[in-house]
Amino acid sequence: MTAIPFVDLAAQFAEERDELMPVIEAALARGQWTGGEVIERLEADLASVCGAAHAVALNSGTDALILALKALGIGPGDEVVTAPNSFIASAGAIAAVGATPVFADVGSDQNIDPAAAEAAITPRTRALMPVHLTGRMADMAALTAIAQRHGLAVIEDAAQAFGARWNNRPAGSFGHVGCFSAHPLTNFNACGDAGFAVTSDAAVAGRMRRLRSHGLDGGDHAAEWGRLSRLDTLQAEILRFRLGRLQSVITRRRRNAGLYRRQLTVFSPPCRPEEFNIFQLFVVQVDRRDELRAFLAGRGICTDIHYPVPLHLQPAAAGLGYRPGAFPVAERQAGRILSLPIHQFLDDADIAEVCAAIAEFT
User: In this predicted model, what pLDDT tens digit does every residue of 6-16 receive, in sequence order?
Assistant: First the structure.
């Protein structure tokens, strides 16, 4: 029995090694390991891909969210509406700036329900933070219309969605700021933590750049208290190299998703005509999820759960006052979702093996 890994970073490095190692060696040999032209070139490339005027390279997708919130002036006393079924960083970033995360339930596609988001708005609401979960975009047409009606900012948590599109517009181009992760487990991945934000607001971009470097205005004068959140040049060079390969990665993942959809008999949210899903994850919803996961593990098939505990039920959120049953769709999904291997190094036989094992179990 050959194991089927959930991710295969070793295979990625093996595929890239001959081309990537000279890039790494050149980056180290230059001796400039923070800042400079390498960062500026990467930022220009990222902004272009996202259809934005500016990109700000950062050390993580989490800091992209935190600095975006700060740059928009969101802080204590403010509320930000977001989804309860994301990674902890979404709500954690809101809490980190002193604001209050307010949750709204999701739809069958696992993305925030626009009607629920609008119902959660109060006089203290300053922004909507939709999460483009698993590589598929939330309904940005509806969400931006809601934001405009209520005079709210929109911060796209696009950590899992670089390269995704809605009606052919790229993720990150709808909101005031789009925030991305380049964590090793994303489709567009660094060899360590990395992230970036995109915006067409020059003032917001400028403030985020200042905040990422201790609040310094390019010299020894700190205009405000900031933090250290720079992306180092080695990771920037790796990302510039991998940006040229990203479309191939997405194409292979979309192909694997198509194979799954043709062979699986369990539910996976279908793609709408207006969405271009990059399949950061391929998630099915099944009864007896934990039993199925154990069954697949026994066959050497690795899976994961994104995410088993909704944010409003995390211990960190206890002070927000939510109780079980507050968001029934997200809570029901949390007990049924299972992420199957979708990485670009799977072949037809791997997909067929996963599907056959699921069919045998069910």
Answer: 999 999 999 99
